[in-house]
Amino acid sequence: MSRYKSYLTIEELSKAVGEEVTLRGWVYNMRGKGKLQFIILRDGTGIVQCVVFQGNVSEEAFEAAKSLTQESSLIIKGKLKAEERAPGGYEIDVTDLQVVQLSKDYPISPKEHGDSFLIEHRHLWLRSSKQHAIMRVRAAVVKAIRDFFDGNGFKLMDSPLLTPNACEGTSTLFETEYFDLGKAYLSQSGQLYAEASAMALGKVYTFGPTFRAERSKTRKHLTEFWMVEPEIAFFDLDDDMDLAEDLVEYIVAFVLKSCRQELETLERDTTKLEIIKRPFYRISYTEAVDMLIADKIPLKKKVEGEEVDIFPFPWGEDFGAVQEEAIMEHFDKPCIIHRYPVEAKAFYMKRDPENPKTVLAMDMLGPEKAGELIGGSQREDDYDALLKRIEENNLPVEAFQWYLDLRKYGSVPHSGFGLGVERTVKWLTGASHIREVIPFPRMIYRIVP
Ligand code: 4AD
Ligand code: MG
Fold it and tell me: From 125's CA, which of 200, 208, 308, 344 has a CA 20 to 30 Å away?
């Protein structure tokens, strides 16, 4: 028996069929006529129908049941029985009922609300069945990630969130004053520290929130998002791609196994997820460009404020959502695109010894318009080459001295990647917007609630 106040949750009801149970929760919905009141109770773990028959409860309890409103909090006692027709498969014959607090004018009714209304009421919207299901899938994805790495000999090494330098370009930095030491920046990625950690512990992962001052108002960008970043000493790009596939395969299988109910609530077509098994697809950036040209997909670029189409797609440019989606039209499973042009990618990526115009980078794109799930690379491990890249990118060499040190004292080939938690959850749940897959989204136009 737990030391905490012991009570059953709706999720655990199968243990207590035929017994007298006590449930605590909120009114999800209710209806009634005459001597019967039906309460759909939710307790955070699930919902169950509770039937209040006037003859079975005290007069006060029946009056209380009649007075209930949506989201009122209450404690219910009753007999649990299996009931096929009821949602969830159980029903409670109520014997007693106690209102904890009567809710007044709950703003979210079962009717349709506009997107902006719901997001303004995010603190309450989380109680709705679809949002509830998405949050449970999110928790499962995070658990799958931790289990995967912990179970494969990786050590969790947290990277700092306040940092003295940029990791992913200087255009998306959040900056803040840092006492007498000048400017500090919110971390865009834990990678640089993960590299130092990998040289100390071999196989590590860093897992936490990351920040990008993204100006883009897309359905796939947040300004604060969670990323898991493995980093491994003596790993090359091929090892890195293998690991990325293993991780994604593991997450999908775990979610399919542990979130059946949630995926059903979300009306997710799970046949599209059942096939997510290795091997995935792999093509080079150059092959991807050829594909775009064959499919007549242009580069969309802003020239003097006006959007223009450039065709054929010029080798050297990075892909945007349009290109990613066009490429993924060819694939029903994730596809890794590797060996990108130097100019399209970050300063720390290792030059491809076979082709100096490209770096040993890889992005994993997801099917069903999931977009980029993973970005990774083999890292530049040569001191002089890295220094040159830092300078070419106009980054302050001073702030990177410690990072350069890693190339001075026992430098080794090493690789890693970052998987975006929200991109992954969005894909797996089929959510239409990334703001629905994090409890309290942060976007360019939203910081409340
Ligand atoms: O491709 P990115 O920028 O890679 C890195 O940050 C590397 N330092 C990772 C590494 O090698 N350790 O970001 C990695 C992933 C993307 O593939 C995407 O899933 C997610 O992070 N991501 C975002 N998710 C939501 N909102 C944004 N603004 C995101 N930017 C990146
Ligand atoms: Mg990327």
Answer: 208
Residue 349 DSSP one-character state: B
Q: Whose CA is nearest to atom 30 of ligand 1?
A: 221
The CB of 416 under 6 Å from ligand 1? The reply is: yes
How far apart (Å, rounded) are the C-alpha atoms in residues 309 and 169?
25
pLDDT score for 1: 44
Mean pLDDT on 49-74: 97
Query: Best substitution site from 423, 427, 442 to test ligand 1's pocket, by max atoms within 8 Å of Cβ?
Result: 423
- The class (CATH top level) of 122-437 is alpha beta
Domain ranges of the chain: 3-101, 122-437
**pTM of this prediction exceeds 0.90:** yes
Q: What is the pLDDT of residues 299-329, one digit of tens each?
A: 999 889 899 999 999 999 999 999 999 999 9
Measured in angstroms, how far is the CA atom of residue 403 from the centroid of ligand 1? 20
Kindly give the distance from the C-alpha atom of residue 372 to the centroid of ligand 1, in angstroms, as a whole number.
8
Residue identifier of the C-alpha nearest atom 20 of ligand 1: 420
Tell me what the mean pLDDT of segment 52-68 comes to.
97
Q: Distance, CA 418 to ligand 1 centroid (Å)?
A: 6
CATH of domain 3-101: 2.40.50.140
Which has the closest alpha carbon to 344: 386, 322, 314? Answer: 314
For 136, residues 6+ apart whose C-beta sits below 8 A from its C-beta are 259, 262
**CA separation for the pair 276, 253 (Å, rounded):** 8
Q: Give the chain's mean pLDDT.
A: 96
Q: How far is the CA of 77 from the centre of ligand 2 (A)?
A: 53
Mutate to test the pocket of ligand 1, among 154, 172, 189 (most ligand atoms within 8 A of CB): 189
Tens digits of residue pLDDT in 328-383: 999 999 999 999 999 999 999 999 999 999 999 999 999 999 999 999 999 999 99
Cα dihedral across residues 305, 310, 315, 319: positive or negative? positive
pLDDT cut 90: percent of the chain above it: 93
